[in-house]
Specification:
The protein is an alpha/beta fold. Helices cover about 40% and strands about 20% of the residues. An 8-stranded mixed beta sheet has the order 3-4-2-5-1-6-7-8, sandwiched between helices. Helix 7 links the parallel strand 7 and strand 8. It is globular.
Length: about 250
């Protein structure tokens, strides 16, 4: 099982990268689960035709009881991808990171991975603050590889550096390791050079490069990933190539 956590600053495009990767893996014939670990709960929306999925935390508040099956807190999207959103607490009350931990404990109780038997699991995680909850995918051994999504913007690179530092703190415990950086272009001046300088300093490879694309925006307005919209596009090939690379390096 290939288990990947995708981290990045809020608004940097990590959900776009994660959902397109999920669609790419599915199109390669893999059985995929995508778990959105962001209080906004919009990670999987473009795998679900633009229809939002009720987050696990909302379910628990409304039902005041744990679900009896995975089907109650998930939905199957494009390519058979099983979609789950952790969500967060009521705004102004509680900690979003604790929502992730509570959801992960619930998924363990429901034996998600044993019953669904996925080939690939993707965790889409907010990386502005890598506290205990948001670090759960790497700290608790759920993910094995980390992708850091960044642009050449100053705050995106600052967050990327914090994420890399957080992952390194767990290296001695055989938890997840950073597989590489995904450059999601924002057309910042000297963007490639800035991200390459960060990657070189951190000792990380740039494993994917996603150009600024009107096609991505156009298909997202239709509630689709670009992989679903048109898998033959050059930008679609970037996601497919990254998925293939991850599969090739699965045991590395």
């Amino acid at each position: 099982m290939l288990k990947i956590a995708v981290y990045g600053k809020g608004g940097i495009g990590k959900s776009t990268v994660t959902s397109n990767l999920a669609a790419a893996f599915a199109s390669l014939g893999k059985r995929v689960i995508q778990i959105g670990c962001d209080p906004k709960a919009d990670s999987t929306i473009n795998l679900l035709g633009g229809e939002p999925l009720k987050p696990v935390m909302n379910y628990l508040r409304e039902q005041d009881a744990d679900p009896e099956s995975i089907e109650e807190i998930s939905r199957v999207g494009f390519g058979g991808v099983l979609c789950i959103e952790t969500g967060g607490p009521t705004p102004g009350l509680g900690c979003a990171g604790r929502g992730i931990i509570a959801t992960f404990n619930l998924l363990e109780d429901l034996r998600l991975f044993e019953t669904w038997n996925p080939d690939v699991v993707l965790f889409d995680v907010l990386g502005d603050v890598v506290c205990g909850g948001f670090a759960a995918p790497i700290r608790e051994g759920y993910a094995e590889k980390v992708l850091i999504v960044t642009s050449g913007e100053k705050m995106a690179l600052y967050a990327a550096n914090n994420i890399n530092s957080a992952v390194k703190n767990f290296e001695e415990r055989s938890y997840a390791k950073v597989f590489g950086v995904v450059l999601n272009h924002r057309n910042v001046e000297h963007e490639t050079e800035k991200v390459q300088a960060f990657a070189d300093k951190a000792g990380l490879p740039i494993v994917g490069e996603i150009p600024r694309s009107d096609e991505i925006i156009r298909f997202e307005e239709q509630g689709k990933t670009v992989i679903e919209g048109d898998p033959t596009l050059p930008v679609s090939k970037r996601f497919l190539d990254l998925a293939q690379l991850l599969l090739e390096k699965e045991t590395v």
